[in-house]
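Contributing new records

If you add data, match the layout below exactly. Sequence lines come first and carry their own label; structure lines follow with theirs. Keep one chain per record. Anything else will be rejected by the validation script.
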Amino acid sequence: MRLYARLLLAATLLAVVVIGLGAYVRLSDAGLGCPDWPGCYGHLLGVPDGSSAAVAAWPQQPFDAGKAWKEMIHRYAAGSLGLLVLAICLLAWRPKMRQEQSPALPTLLLGLIGLQAALGMWTVTLLLKPLIVTLHLLGGMATLALLVTLLLRTRTSGTFAPAIRWPAALALFAVVGQIALGGWVSSNYAALACPDFPFCQGQWLPPADFAHAFTLHRELGQTAHGELISGEALTAIHLTHRLGAVLVLLVVGTLAARLLGHGQRRWGGLLLVLLGVQLGLGIANVLLSLPLLLAVAHNLGAAALLSAVLAVNLRCQSRQGQRVRQTETVLT
């Protein structure tokens, strides 16, 4: 059990690194640094020389060693995470471990890693199609969420009052939805569609094309009909993400207030700090024209907020599980 817990901790930390690297690759426009998958210009290890025959075989793809290395480092980290998850799954299926907990979640996690690998491949082969890129980001966050769930199950912890349960569930739903919107903003390069704050293009409600903004099945920079996507559509994407941020502020803020009201100062304070930092990073990214490090930090902030809200939900479920076990004991 100790090895299992250590592997979970290592995998959780590595998942955070992979999310950060993925954001760095995407935001530095290195997503197509390698035109093939899983190698780079046919090389599984390292990046070829710019004058090599491997590079010459891809004349349609300009070679950039820096971008290629960024992409390959991300792949190596993701591959290492996959190996850790495989080890976790194998341990979970051992007879002794199965007596303590079900191997269902580790098995689901391994399947999710396989799906993530496929999405990573399609991200390259389908030339950064927004839907695939967004799903790849959500898959990374889901991987982290499952690892956090498994990790917290290996540790004894207190439980929260029943009054926290529904605000916590609503907060988790809001955070996941906002992460999906953030992924859609990033995959469509709409982060600077509104270059000012709190206004957007100097207005509260600038012209926005919501009809084309959320058409899922389309190529990057195009509408579903193959036409160039308009600035109004990108504005609609950005505005929706801002509205989502207001919703998250209200819902997660309410959850934090409930926690503080029930004496959970550490958890309530943590949520308020993470919420404030994340909102501050979002505003700073707009006002400072999306500096790379701040943009990556915004992605990591989303991962931290998701993990914290998820942990609160798990503690609420832990209390419910205790009540079920107590009821079963009385009945028997």
